[in-house]
Amino acid sequence: MSAQVIPAIRAARIVSRRHRVIRRIPRGFHVEQKFIHLWKYGYTWTFDSLNDSWKRFSKTGQVGALLRSDDRQCEVIYSVVLGFDNHRSWIRDDLLNVSQGQDTARFEDHVTVMTGQAVRPFNVDSMFLLELPIEPMERDGSLYTRCVRMYLTRKGHTFLDFVWFFTDEGYARRQEYLRAIEGKVYFKKRQESPHRPTK
Q1: Between the CA of residue 87 and those of 48, 76, 137, 160, what are the distances in Å?
Q2: For 169-178, how does the pLDDT look when each residue is reduced to its tens digit (9 = 90+)?
Q3: Counting runs of H as helices and runs of E as strands, what totals does the chain give?
């Protein structure tokens, strides 16, 4: 999929249909960029058993539709790279990027896990949230200083991931922005059979 020729929202919709998920633009947000956005942020890692350490394997990033809040305090990338069901390796790479390959960033210290009632609006089993370190990024007069990675997971399905960027002011109100996608992003429920036996 070429970022130069495929509009971002169209690409996100094609991928969403294929994986039976709904991802709509939340209220208070708009499409910031017509074409697919690429954000380079770190590396994938491979374990070197000879030296008992992690080695940087390849540069990585997030590719997707870039949305921006109307107040310019928050941006979010809706990934168009779906089809994976192992979110654990992605979170492992995130933690290795946090510690620069030292494997010192403990899951319990960096990852917030939510289940039950908190994730019901998404029709998922779990939500994972963690912060990624970023260099401050200036875009159209807003300075984004904080970054939160979100994973939504459901057994037997691909996971959904999002990258959230916040200004200092936006970060103080991050829960408000994260809640904006409730009811706008979710896994479709299985359709009941149209030929249900009658009593």
Answers
A1: 21, 19, 27, 9
A2: 999 999 999 9
A3: 5, 12
Using CA atoms, how far apart are residues 164 and 62, in angstroms rounded to an integer?
11
**For residues 126 and 160, is the Cβ–Cβ distance under 8 A?**
no
- 3-state SS class at 21: strand
pLDDT 10s digits, 12-56: 888 888 888 999 999 999 999 888 898 988 888 999 998 899 998
Q: What is the pTM of this model?
A: 0.86
Angstrom distance (rounded) from CA 8 to CA 163: 15
Q: Alpha carbon 12 to chain centroid distance?
A: 13
Q: What span, in angstroms and rounded, lies between the C-alpha atoms of 135 and 146?
A: 9
- How many residues comprise the chain? 199
Q: What is the pLDDT of residues 64-76, one digit of tens each?
A: 999 999 999 999 9
Task: Residue 103: count other Cβ atoms within 10 Å of its Cβ.
Answer: 14
